[in-house]
Specification:
This protein has seven helices and two strands. Helix 1 runs antiparallel to helix 2. The protein starts with a helix and ends with a helix. The model has no long low-confidence stretch (mean pLDDT 93). Strands 1-2 form a two-stranded antiparallel sheet. 31% of the residues are buried. The protein is mostly helical.
């Protein structure tokens, strides 16, 4: 039963999150007359406020994130232990940060960084707990699904670690042109990594799906 719930959550999250970001891309294209470049554009720059006519799109993101956290809550309620409760808490904290991040601009730099690193570090910790829990299950039951879950968790944690320790993470300086003017760089690692956190959170459901298939 739980694995069917996780599969449903994966599909729903993917559909609603894809709808949200694709819609933002189409709106950006119609207004700016050019394609959206996630390599150097922050999410908050294109996310509409709730007062705008397209503000209803934000509910697609909120619903996707809510569904993303639900399997962890349900699993913890059915399997109460240190690992499941830790995963539930970390998932809820990550979802909160990701739901708030698109509405805090760099004008509030400290708050923006708090939310960004809150999401990044909580997701990293979540992958770590999933890896340890999967290892515990594999060691206890010699279950291949638990082994696969551990491998996926380690890969996700490794990718997140690469983001955390990337030396260009705080490089927000504009590019200086030959005429002395400044323009935005074609690649801003911080902006791009913010986009990666959202599908990354969906992928974090894969380990718990494999765990529930044992």
């Amino acid at each position: 039963m739980i694995n069917n719930l996780v599969i449903t959550a994966l599909i729903v999250c993917f559909l609603f999150e894809s709808t949200f970001f694709l819609s933002l891309g189409l709106i950006y294209n119609s207004i700016e007359k050019k394609n959206l470049r996630i390599l150097n554009t922050f999410i908050f720059e294109i996310t509409p406020s709730f007062k705008e006519k397209n503000g209803v799109l934000n509910y697609f993101l909120f619903f996707s994130l809510l569904v993303n956290a639900f399997p962890y809550i349900f699993y913890a309620s059915r399997n109460i232990n240190v690992y499941s409760v830790s995963m539930m808490i970390l998932a809820v904290l990550t979802v909160f940060c990701l739901a708030t991040l698109p509405f805090v601009s760099l004008n509030k730099l400290k708050e923006h960084f708090y939310l960004y690193f809150g999401a990044l570090l909580c997701m990293l910790a979540l992958s770590g707990v999933e890896a340890f829990y999967s290892y515990y299950l594999y060691k206890t039951y010699l279950d291949n699904y638990a082994l696969a879950s551990m491998i996926v968790s380690i890969v996700l944690a490794f990718i997140l670690l690469l983001i955390v320790f990337n030396p260009k993470l705080f490089d927000l300086q504009n590019k200086k042109n030959d005429d002395g003017s400044f323009s935005r760089k074609k690649f801003i690692f911080l902006a791009f990594s913010e986009w990666l956190l959202y599908p990354g959170m969906i992928l974090s459901l894969v380990p718990i799906l494999l765990i529930t298939m044992k």
